[in-house]
Design brief:
The protein is an alpha/beta fold and 250 residues long.
Length: 250
């Protein structure tokens, strides 16, 4: 099966800082893959590379068989950041924020059609926020805002979805809603790459996981990757070469 997301030999430098070193990664259609690593391990850089937002020193990234820039322009790759990028004091409603996910379909005039409004309603229903559609975005809790960002990606109808720490600081209801939607998306054929420090929930969401510390330390079935030895190495407590890689590790 051709991967929906393919990263080959990716190396990224910020001047003298080596952010990613010869990273190989693949996510199949209808697969959820966990991305685990300490802060500064290169997870955010990897997301930016998949979105075509960072220059690479070596290697390449393909999204749905084409360039990241092409996939982003067509709305085929969606991104749910750890913190929302919307001014909480700006007088914009929840529905308005979700509608932003439809901009690539509206043309240069950005005039929403009935199909766009219907997509927003459906996305809000899936994340259980229909009753808050008209509320100003700054009046939501952290967990509710995270669900709004997921709804924006749903309205976008992305085929590849990147999520950066979606469960950090969210309430139990929001975590349950997000997890439920992610399972539905994967069942429908969407490809998901999810970074998280919440290792307890990872096996239930992702069949495969990758440990990253500038390079891939281990990859394979989640249960085989998240061993104490591998985690110690990923979080700076082990020694190089001691990782026990899962099936398919590089």
């Amino acid at each position: 099966m051709t991967p929906a997301l393919q990263v080959r030999g990716l190396t990224v430098r910020y001047r003298e800082v080596l952010a990613l070193d010869d990273v190989h990664l693949a996510v199949a259609p209808g697969e959820a893959c966990g991305l685990v690593g300490m802060n500064g391990s290169g997870k955010s850089t990897l997301f930016r590379a998949v979105l075509g937002l960072v220059p690479t020193s070596r290697g390449d990234v393909e999204v749905l068989g084409g360039s990241p820039q092409h996939a982003r322009a067509r709305g085929e790759v969606g991104y749910v950041p750890q913190t929302d990028d919307v001014d909480r004091d700006f007088p914009v409603s929840v529905a308005d924020v979700v509608l932003m996910g439809r901009y690539h379909l509206m043309g240069w005039r950005r005039r929403p059609r009935a199909a766009d409004h219907a997509a927003v309603e459906a996305a809000l229903d899936r994340v259980r926020l229909t009753e808050l559609a008209g509320r100003q975005i700054g009046r939501l809790s952290g967990g509710q805002r995270q669900r709004v960002l997921l709804a924006r990606a749903l309205a976008q109808q992305a085929r590849v979805l990147l999520l950066d720490e979606p469960f950090t600081g969210v309430d139990a209801a929001s975590e349950a809603a997000v997890s439920s939607v992610l399972r539905e998306l994967v069942a429908d054929g969407c490809s998901v790459l999810l970074s998280t420090h919440d290792l307890a929930t990872l096996p239930d969401l992702c069949e495969r996981s990758v440990l990253l510390h500038r390079r891939v330390l281990a990859e394979g079935p989640t249960a085989q990757v998240l061993t104490p030895e591998n985690l110690a190495l990923a979080f700076g407590l082990g020694t190089p070469g001691s990782a026990r890689r899962g099936t398919g590790a590089r």
